[in-house]
Amino acid sequence: MLGSEIKSSYMQNGTLLAAVDLGSNSFRLEIGRYDHGRIHRIEYLKETVRQGNGLDADRNLSKDAMQRGWDCLARFGERLAAFEKAQVRAVATQTLREAVNRDEFLRRGQKNLGFPIDVIAGREEARLIYQGVAHLLPQSDEHRLVVDIGGRSTELILGHGLQTRTLESYQVGSVAWSMRYFPEGQFTTRAFALAEIAAKAVLDETVTIYRPDTWNAAYGSSGTIGAVCEVLTAAGWPPDVVTREGLQWLLERLIKAQSADRLKLDGLKEERRAVIGGGISVLKAVFDLLGIERMQAAQGALRHGVLYDLLDRDEDLTDLRATSVQRLAHNFNTDTVQAARLSKVAQHLFVLAGTGLPGAESVSLKRELAWAAQLHEVGSQISHNYYHKHGAYILDNADAPGFAVHEMHRLGLLVLGHRGKLRKLEADFEDRRFVQQLLCLRLAVILCHARLDPDLKGMQFQWDDEPGRRFMLTCRPGWDQAFPQSAYLLQEEVLAWQKTPWTLMVVCGA
Question: In this structure, how many other beta carbons lie within 10 angstroms of the beta carbon of residue 283?
Fold first, then answer.
C-alpha cells in the first residue's frame, strides 16, 4: 500500500496511475491503483541504465547511453500502452538537466514511452521526493530531514507532515563521484578522503541550513541509502537503519577489498557495485556535515511523490502550479486586476476558437493560457522597457514548485510573445495549440489596452479548418468606429502575423 490518505475530488476508485522516474543510474516505473484515498502498488519495474556515466566533458549524452535509455523506455511503453495521458507522468532528473543534447533523447524517448517526459528542476525534484517519503510515513509531529543521494545530484529537504520548509538540490551523486574518484573501481584510503572532501566542498552551505536543531528525525530515500541499508542489515546491523558506526564499518570493508570487482558483501546488488564508492563518499560527507548519527531508510521516493502529485495536478483548486503562479505574481507586484481581466478575455477567445481536442487537454491549455496572462507583466518590476523580455527570463529561471522545466519555458515564450514582433520567438509555429494560445493572449492584450473591460458583444473568433492556418476575428457593425484605437491595433496585429505561417483576418461589420 502506498501511503496515507489523499483527498481528490475527481479521482475514481480503481483508477490506475503510473510514474516513470528517469534517474541518472536507474529508470523506474511504479504503477498503483487509487482506492478510497490510497494508492496500492500494482507493479514496480526497475532497470539499471546508468545514463549518468554517458555524459562527456561537453555534457553531451553518448549514443550508447541514449540507446540504453530508449530501449528501457520502449519496454516501459509497452506496459503502459493501455494508459491515458492523465494517468501517467514521467520525470527526468539531473542527467537530463545537464545534457546539452537532451532534446534529441527526449524526442525519441517520448515516442518510445508513448507519453511526455518532464525534465524537472532540482528543487522540484526535492519537493516530489519529500512528498513520496512523507506520504509513506505514519502521521507524526516530527520535524524531518530527508536525504536522497542520486546518481548525479543529492537532494536535502526539511519538512513537517506533508509540508516542506527548506529544500535544495546539489550536484553531487554516486555515479558522478564514482566516475571522478574511483574511475577504475579502485578503493583506497586516499581516494575516499579526496571524494569526501570534494563532496563537502559542494555541500558546505548545508551546515547552517540543515542544522541538527532544525530536525529530530533523519530519513534516507532511494538508491544509495537503500543499498547501504541492505548491506548493513545483511551483516547484522539494525534493519533499515544507517548509523555512523555502520557507515564507517562499510567504508573499511571497501578499502580492504581494494576494488569494486573484489568486493564481496552480502546484500550488495551487482548493479550497485560500480557506484557504491561514490555513494558512500557522499553519504559520509552528509553525515559529518549535518551531525547525523542515525538515518532511517524511507519507503517513499521520487516516483511515489510523482504519483501523489498526479492526484492534484489537473484540479484548479489543488494544482500546486496555480499557487506558484500566484506567488510569482505577488513577488513581482503585478497588476492583479489587469491580469484577471486579460485572463478572462484570453480564455473567452480560446473557447470561441475551439480546439478539437479532448476535454481534459483543452482545459489544461486554457489553464496554461490563464497563467501566462497572470504573469505577462512580471518583468515590469525590472524595467518597463522590454518588460516582456525580462518576464520571459524570469520564468525561464524561476524555481516554481509543481512546474517542469519545459512548462516554465512555454510560459516564458507566451510572455515573451504577448507583444512586439513574432520573429523573435524561437517557437514552433507548426504547433497550432501554442499558436492559438499566443494569438488569444496577444488579442486580449490589445482589447484590454486601456486597462478597462473591453466590449466583446457580438465578437466572434474562429479557426478555419480550411485552409487550416487562418484565424478570423469578427466584430459587430460599428465596433471599429466606437473603438478606433483597438481597431487600429488589431490591423497592426494582422500585419504581424503575415510574417508567420499563419493568417489573421479581422472583419468589422460583417
Answer: 27
